[in-house]
Amino acid sequence: MSARILIVDDDQGYRFSLRDYLAHLGYRITEAGSCAEARQILKSRELDLILLDLQLPDGDGLALLDEIAQMGDAVEVIMISGHGTIEKAVQAMQKGACDFVPKPGEMSDLVARIKKALELRGLKRRSAGRTDGFTPPIVGKSKQMTSCLEACRRLAQTDTTVLLLGETGTGKEILARYLHAVSPRRDGPFVAVSCANFTEQLIDDDLFGHESGAFTGAHKVKQGKVESADGGTLFLDEIGEMPYALQAKLLRFLEMHTYTRVGGVKERETDVRVVAATNRNLQAETKEGRFRPDLFFRLNVYSLYIPPLREWRESIPDLVGHFLSQMACKQSRNGFTITPEALERLMEYHWPGNVRELRNVIERATVISTDGTIGESDLPFLADDLKESPQGRYHEQLLEYQKQIILSALRECHGNRTEAAKRLGLHRTDFLRRIKNLGLQTHLPLQNKSTDS
């Protein structure tokens, strides 16, 4: 996408020649001959760079520079003037201009400065959400997970929308981060959004941001998640939890890659790769009328299934070794080992919470261990009745496992739901929904209201 440049100069001859020269180089040019014209354009269009004259017929370029800075658009500004002084140049730089160029001057010099300013803007927008040093997912001996990573590497070379499918705790966000880290967008931001946290009132503000004064309390411009993800990857987690009424707004963004901030009129563009994830059967949800078919088709360009941990048990020893190393670093310990009996117990367990639950169990065990060796006595969380049993139907057992895990976490956190949700790696909204769906409201331990929010 070619850069969008606004030229603000009352010298029509200079403005026209500059417009023609830059347009020939492939830039998208907009013009203004006054502060008033520039303000109208700033309200309605998104820009990457402004070439701003110091002296305009209806105002001071430095004053307009202040207004631009308050808009929060992260647009770069190069001041241009035929009457510039060192003092004015210093003032412009202090107010946020990235350069100060005298006119008339060599076009080649100005173009070089424009390229430098655009590189600076790109660097600023990429600085958030970097995945430098990202460690690839641990897959051990699993052929299924090895195939998943191979599919990710192939998909990473495209901008195709990807839908990650799998149970809670299977590592969908980790896989999304891996896809980003091996893609050409790796130097851009990775921005994760949990759709389970959205309400109709917050969707626009959280995703698309707002303008100053858009509503009570909106004292300054807020950049939304889609704007933060420009040049990188936008990860929409728990997409199946998004309320039906909000799905049309998301669909429009996915179709057009354009959006408008709350309280604004300017249609903005963003260059993002979208990866979504869910533990729901979205095809069934569409038939039940809980998910828009058009949104499902738009997301389901390529779907990738992540198997539950019970289907790749052969990699549990590798995962355990990885998590023990992590915990040793986290707790500043020399290292941890695990007995064959304890490892066998981990291999036998059904892992309804998948890799996330395994990591939590290992972390708790390392906290309990006094000598650095994890034994069976350090795994009280895996009660005998939670082991995989050949009796009983699969779904009934799975529901029972989920109930026990939630109740165990609540007991350990003295009833504090916020802390219990964090311990299980769940968003509080999702955690409370699971309590309700599993009918646990009357079985919960008393909570300390002074510590729960």
What does this structure look like?
It comes from Candidatus Manganitrophus noduliformans. Keywords: ATP-binding, DNA-binding, Nucleotide-binding, Phosphoprotein, Transcription, Transcription regulation. InterPro entries: AAA+_ATPase (IPR003593), AAA_lid_NorR (IPR058031), CheY-like_superfamily (IPR011006), Homeodomain-like_sf (IPR009057), HTH_Fis (IPR002197), P-loop_NTPase (IPR027417), Sig_transdc_resp-reg_receiver (IPR001789), Sigma_54_int (IPR002078). The protein folds into three domains: 123 residues, Rossmann fold; 165 residues, Rossmann fold (3-Layer(aba) Sandwich); 134 residues, Helicase, Ruva Protein, domain 3, CATH 1.10.8. The chain contains 18 helices and 18 strands. It has a five-stranded parallel β-sheet with strand order 2-1-3-6-7, sandwiched between helices. A five-stranded parallel β-sheet has the order 9-12-15-8-16. Helix 13 packs across helix 15. It is elongated and about 85 Å long. The two termini are 45 Å apart. 33% of the residues are buried. About 3% of the residues have low confidence.
Range of strand content: 5-15%
Number of domains: 3
Radius of gyration: 27 Å
**What general outline do the C-alpha atoms trace?**
elongated
Largest sheet: 5 strands, parallel
Average pLDDT figure: 83
Protein name: Sigma-54-dependent Fis family transcriptional regulator
Keywords: ATP-binding, DNA-binding, Nucleotide-binding, Phosphoprotein, Transcription, Transcription regulation
InterPro entries: AAA+_ATPase, AAA_lid_NorR, CheY-like_superfamily, Homeodomain-like_sf, HTH_Fis, P-loop_NTPase, Sig_transdc_resp-reg_receiver, Sigma_54_int
GO molecular function: ATP binding; sequence-specific DNA binding
